[in-house]
Amino acid sequence: MLDRFATFLDRHDRILLTTHENPDGDGVGASIALTAHLKAGGKDARIVVTPALPENLQFLDPMGWIEPFEPTGAHQDLASWPDAWLLIDASEPHRMGALFAAFERTKADRACLDHHLKDAPKGFDEEFTDPTASASTELVYDLVRPRIGGELPPVMAQALYAGLVSDTGNFRHSNSTPKIHIAAADLIAQGVHPARTFNALYQTATPSKLKLFGRAMGGLQLKDDGRFAYVSVTKADLAACGASHEDLDELVEEPRKLKGVEVAALFSETEDGRAKVSLRSRERVDVNAVCRRFGGGGHRLASGAKVSQPLEAFIAEVEAAVMDQIRLDIV
Length: 331
Ligand SMILES: [Mn+2]
Hints:
Helices cover 37% and strands 18% of the residues. By secondary structure, the protein is α/β, with parallel strands linked by helices. The strands form two sheets. A six-stranded parallel β-sheet has the order 3-2-1-4-5-6, with helices on one face. Strands 7-8-9-10-12-11 form a six-stranded mixed β-sheet. The protein starts with a helix and ends with a helix. Bound molecules: manganese (II) ion. The site of manganese (II) ion has 6 residues, from loops. Manganese (II) ion binds next to loops.
């Protein structure tokens, strides 16, 4: 697959790299590492993201390669620039969000590079996917490493390492393979600092966010002998802490830390006044089945749903559904 991908890149001179909207460390890391490789090979390569590069990923882009998408400004004619348009870390064109309209218009060859387990990608001229890879950065690493003997450019090594960290949850998840650790060891030997990378990616909370976590954890609820644990956050809670909805990110991981918990939940009020749940399962309980009952979805171990209903009533209904599912999945 990677030889085919290398041939694809060889055939093109102006390559536009994009990733899914709200880009993450893997999509950005893979884009920057690949751009460094392409530029070194004399190619013209650009990266356009939407809506913008998150603040905690800016350290990956010391050269300022990443352009935030401006559909009515600098990027009005983006569709006509490339001869190859590459989507990285996704294999469904609509996941490009605001970039999708330009993608549809372009006469460039369209391709995707991805590691997600999906149906056969549609809407591309060529697909480069490998669901056995832990991260898109793993695919880029496998492409570039045999072609660059000795030292890697520091920008490339840092971007590859950050991508591996992002998609393995800092080498915690089940995709933390021996191969990923060997690649990480190589990148650390090239000069990447693991602690600095972790700090830059994750240790970025604001006081408002931590106050919100404290307030939420103060209301921790335990049900079913501690097998189901949840916290809930109202708009009034956000206001009291000076926090925003983005500050809810990762809060659901807190009740999940409890010993004996099978299912953890975060309930919250959305900006438009709906009730939302994020559910996480340790391993055995299918929380996707629970969320489907409320019109939501996701993965078996991580799912969510939103309903037009008062928060308290929704909590009671989800609680009952989680109990049913625990009975079904844990004998
Ligand atoms: Mn990824």
